[in-house]
Amino acid sequence: MKRILLTIAYDGTNYSGWQKQLSPEVKTVEGELEKALRALFRSPNLICIGASRTDRGVHALGQRATIDVETNIPVEKIPLAVRSLLPSDIVVVKAEEVPADFHPRYDCIKKTYEYRIWNGPMRNPKERLYTTFVYSPLDLEKMNKAASNFIGTYDFAAFCAAGSTVSSTVRSIFDCYVKSEGNVISIYVTGDGFLYNMVRIMAGTLIAVGQDKVSPDEILQIILSGNREKAGITAEPQGLTLQEIYYDLHGKAVDSEG
Amino acid sequence: MKRILLTIAYDGTNYSGWQKQLSPEVKTVEGELEKALRALFRSPNLICIGASRTDRGVHALGQRATIDVETNIPVEKIPLAVRSLLPSDIVVVKAEEVPADFHPRYDCIKKTYEYRIWNGPMRNPKERLYTTFVYSPLDLEKMNKAASNFIGTYDFAAFCAAGSTVSSTVRSIFDCYVKSEGNVISIYVTGDGFLYNMVRIMAGTLIAVGQDKVSPDEILQIILSGNREKAGITAEPQGLTLQEIYYDLHGKAVDSEG
Fold first, then answer.
1. Is A68 a catalytic residue?
2. How many Å apart are CA B91 and CA B88, to the nearest integer?
3. Which domains does chain B have, with CATH numbers?
4. So what's the pLDDT on residue B51?
5. Is the dihedral of CA B125, B130, B136, B141 positive or negative?
6. B93 touches chain A (CB under 8 A)
7. What is the pLDDT of residue B253?
8. What is the C-alpha separation between A92 and A81, in angstroms, rounded?
9. pLDDT of residue A253
10. Angle, vertex CA A92, rays to CA A86 and CA A96, nearest 5
């Protein structure tokens, strides 16, 4: 039996998020992926364990999931082998063998998300599924100053959707910055983990900063308030992409041999 | 009665091309646009005259069309006024009044198309609707050399889909070059007009050059042969976007006053 770590890219537009639902009519990325892998490996009980539960309409270029399989297919050939079994909006980008005790969620060191904004007088229809549209010109410099104020270890309860039941709302943000290219403004954020809707609430707050509704210096006060109502709106899902999940695979492999 | 020139952006994915079809079940960009404008202006006989007949799956950021209307809506407000009547994949970007004898097709000076290629080992699902996927690494330098060989006035019969009934296949290409950014390779081509599938056949030929199947120096021979079979394949529609259509609106306005 091999444990295989998959890197998965998808366009989340047509899915009710990553996580498989009990009702088979609800199309999810995990559901489609599991179906394809079960067919490929002729293994009706195969399950995927994903690293991140992306929401409805959210995209990924570097989602990760593990499967346990007995197979003669060389591991590096799995992406190509599964291709014709998957819809065109889900792609297995990479497959690699990992130690038997590797867990895609618990072994994650950090994750990077990108949130994209189309900032211009008119919508761009080719970008409508991959950006949120903001008409008024955003102040990039202020957004960047505000973004840097997210860096640190804080209780991010003010940036967590109501109804979440996590035991701790403390998270570490290692990096957060804003870049623009043409009409697209991208927010990049890297942290050890994210609360429910956290990146989208951060994005909504940074948009408010860019519109001069919130000052960059208020970010820390908002965090420390722990009050969801002080932060900005939850920005739309289609602007969000899970870019990368980082593991110390080498360290892990050494551990498993030790 | 005012003649109004509209600039239209659309994602062509869900349409059978620009041009309205006799069958109302066939969804086209022109058909949807006309429906929205007829509702806005309460003018059931309003017709659009488009500048370019883009194909099924082809996109536009700068399509143009004229309408003739009696209206009290200020011309510059039309894009916003029609927005809620249009599906989200069609956007009227701009509206401007033009002289009564202006024609979007006959008065066109030149057009620019972009053809986008996703060149990398694995598909990117977020780019699948807006690029063609080429696995093997393309030689950008050779593609650029080949692209420059398209510039000039030639009989482009070798770059025209069979079955076309135009009276002349002579066209002038003013500019043609290739640029890359990350995994995306873009071909830009500007000319006074294009034959049926011409840009997509040029793109297919430039991809063959990038794959070392055709040498840059062969471009001129292929053009001069007039033989469609000597050129490359017709590249997929989703990589193509009509970027811009150029008019000498100032000169035209002066003419109409003279």
1. no
2. 7
3. 2-107 (3.30.70.580), 110-244 (3.30.70.660)
4. 97
5. negative
6. yes
7. 43
8. 10
9. 43
10. 140
Q: Rounded to 5 degrees, what angle do the CA atoms A8, A11, A17 make?
A: 85
Amino acid at A151: I
Extended beta strands in chain B, E state = 2-10, 49-50, 59-69, 90-98, 110-119, 132-134, 152-155, 170-181, 184-191, 240-246
B residues 70-89 lying closer than 8 A (beta carbon) to A: 79, 88-89
Q: B92, B123, B243: which to substitute to probe chain A, counting the most A Cβ within 10 Å?
A: B123
CA dist., res. A56 & res. A43, Å (int): 28
What's the rounded mean pLDDT across residues B157-176?
92
Beta strands in chain A (DSSP E): 2-10, 49-50, 59-69, 90-98, 110-119, 132-134, 152-155, 170-181, 184-191, 240-246
Enumerate residues 6+ apart whose C-beta is below 8 A from A89: A10, A11, A13, A14, A15, B125, B128
Each residue of B188-199: pLDDT tens digit?
Answer: 999 999 999 999
CA B204 to chain centroid:
16
The residue among B91, B89, B80 whose CA lies nearest residue B8 is B91
- The catalytic position among A11, A55, A101, A155 is A55
Phi, psi dihedral angles at B220 (to 5 degrees): -65, -40
Q: Residue B116: what are its φ and ψ, rounded to 5°?
A: -105, 135
Q: Write the ipTM.
A: 0.91
- Residue type for position A149: N
| Number of neighbours of residue A192 by Cβ within 10 angstroms | 15
Closest CA to A196 of A95, A59, A84, A55: A55
Confidence of residue A257 (pLDDT cuts 50, 70, 90): very low
Give per-residue pLDDT as tens, B2-39. 999 999 999 999 999 999 998 989 999 999 999 999 99
Nearest to B79 by CA among B9, B20, B133: B9
